Amino acid sequence: MTKSYDPPLTTNPHGPLYRVDNAIKAAQQRLDAAIDMKRHHTNQNLAHEVIKEAREGLRKSEQLRVLKIKELAQKAAET
């Protein structure tokens, strides 16, 4: 259940969005791991808490990416 992003996630380590995009990829991996843990874990309450935290981390990373894109667009408009 990977989300598509516009613009797509950067793979160029010299790109301005590289760090932000790596944070999104890491957050997606944490969410996937949390969902897998839920399938195999006996304590469902703990699994739900971990999934909730992982989703919140992914949401924050996506918001940070939006802010970074806006910042880059503003810099481009100034020049």
Quick structural gist:
This protein is mainly alpha-helical and 79 residues long. 73% of the residues lie in helices and 0% in strands.
Q: What do these coordinates show?
A:
The protein has 79 residues and is mainly alpha-helical. 73% of the residues lie in helices and 0% in strands. It has two helices and no strands. Helix 1 packs antiparallel against helix 2. The protein is elongated and about 55 Å long. The mean pLDDT is 89.
Unreliable spans: none
How much of the residues is beta strand, in percent?
Answer: under 5%
How many helix segments?
2
Radius of gyration: 16 Å
Q: How many individual β-strands? A: 0
Question: What structural class do helix, strand and pairing data support?
Answer: mainly alpha
Oligomer description:
single chain
* Spatial separation of the terminal alpha carbons: 38 Å
Order of helices and strands: HH
Shape: elongated
Tell me roughly what share of residues is in helical segments.
over 70%
Largest sheet: none
- Summarize model confidence as the mean pLDDT: 89
